[in-house]
Amino acid sequence: MRKKIVAGNWKMNKTYDEGLELAREVNEYLRYKEGAEGVTVILGTPFIHLAKVAHNITEANLSVAAQDCSAEKGGAYTGEISAAMIASTGAKHVIIGHSERRAYHGETNALLAGKVNRALENDLGIIFCAGEVLAEREAGNHFEVVERQLAEGVFHVTAAGFSRVVIAYEPVWAIGTGKTATPDQAQEMHAFIRSVVAKQYGDVAAADTTILYGGSCSPANAGELFSRPDVDGGLIGGASLKAADFFEIIKARAKR
Ligand code: PGA
Fold first, then answer.
1. Which of 107, 132, 136, 170 is catalytic?
2. The CATH number of domain 4-188+210-255, selected from 3.30.420.40, 3.20.20.70, 4.10.91.10, 3.30.420.10
3. Are 115 and 81 in contact (CB under 8 A)?
């Protein structure tokens, strides 16, 4: 089902105690404050926080995501974390294909397809990231790039599998740069993504697909981005690390 989602991606930030405190604040906010009506909130924490945060949270509209999983099932892969291990912590989702994983860890679409399979085998929801770099946008190739990332990374799954996938459009030039896509640029790409989902899985599945925007989303621009018909929510990096900013973005999503 298409949902209004605000997901935080903490990346490699927060010590254990700092992370538990931030998760506690978010949980308390959702428990006591008005302003989150109809919004599903996800915390993409480092691996070390997953089990404790998943155990501590009490609110039905709050859940936890890992930021990556291995494409392997298990075994001699030092330092890796499997989808089965993530699921065993109580985390409900995993972010796959973030541009930082693609850029700094050489993750290819083919590798990501394997991660997607492992996640689905373990009943995890997936936040699948796609987005072009600046040179690709300037060359006018951004639609083609995003379509290929989706086609090769995630469109091999069945319709039932795809119903567990949320797509995050994250233009790489907007991530951590303070340079957000304009609401028009986001809407244009989100509508395009919905059209390629429709080609693959049909109009009903496309209408049910949740598509998030990510890239310098902040309290200042969230409201306008979320007012666009195909922007269902956000994947929030920097602004998810400060509780007050994260709450403002949740509020902006609830209002629309
Ligand atoms: P940002 O990161 O909000 O800090 O730009 C978003 C992301 O990478 O998911």
1. 170
2. 3.20.20.70
3. no
Give, for 127, the enclosing helix (H) or strand (E).
strand 125-130
Q: Specify the pTM.
A: 0.97
Given a cut of 80, is residue 95 above it in pLDDT?
yes
User: What's the Cα-to-Cα distance from 26 to each of 86, 113, 219, rounded to whole Å?
Assistant: 21, 32, 16
Looking at the CA of residue 240, tell me the nearest atom of ligand 1: 3
Residue length, the chain?
Answer: 256
170 is catalytic: yes
Query: In whole angstroms, what is the distance from residue 156 CA to residue 146 CA?
Result: 15
217 lines ligand 1 (CB under 6 A): yes
Which ligand 1 atom sits nearest the alpha carbon of residue 218? 3
**Structure confidence at residue 214 (pLDDT):** 97
Residue bearing the CA closest to ligand 1, atom 7: 237
User: What is the average pLDDT across 232-250?
Assistant: 98
CA–centroid distance, residue 202 to ligand 1 (Å): 30
227 pLDDT above the threshold of 90: yes
Does ligand 1 come within 6 angstroms of the Cβ of 97? no
Residue-wise pLDDT for 118-163, tens only, equals: 999 999 999 999 999 999 999 999 999 999 999 999 999 999 999 9
